Amino acid sequence: MNRLPVPLFLxxxxxILVAGLVSPLPAGAQGEERLPVATTVVVEASELTPxxxxxxxxxxxxxxxxxxxxxxxxxxxxxxxxxIVFVTATSAAPVITSGVTAVRVSDENGQxxxxxx
Length: 117
Prior knowledge:
By secondary structure, this protein is an alpha+beta fold. The chain is 10% helix and 24% strand. The chain has one helix spanning 10-21; strands at 37-41, 53-57, 62-65, 74-78, 84-86, 93-98. Strand 2 (53-57) and strand 3 (62-65) form a beta hairpin. The radius of gyration is 17 Å and the shape is globular. The N and C termini lie far apart (50 Å). Mean pLDDT is 75; it is low at 1-31.
């Protein structure tokens, strides 16, 4: 059987990517955990706290911290320790764009329920 050689450093990474992206459980199933994947972006903010929600403004091509409820421009969440980081910018913050992570929330405007942004 002819097989293409896979460099040792790619083998585990490919397994992690496949294991994190393919799940035998339907989306939202109890007990399902998804691998947090982050990409780095330059966020215009004086302080970046893990769990803060990041938004993308298409008109100015900038990333900032979200300051409104149910922000339609949500891009992701500032990461604490993501499992995988795709570095796309130097001097940038890792922002989780898929997977499961902790998010900073407030009950200032009422009770927080699943599905709130």
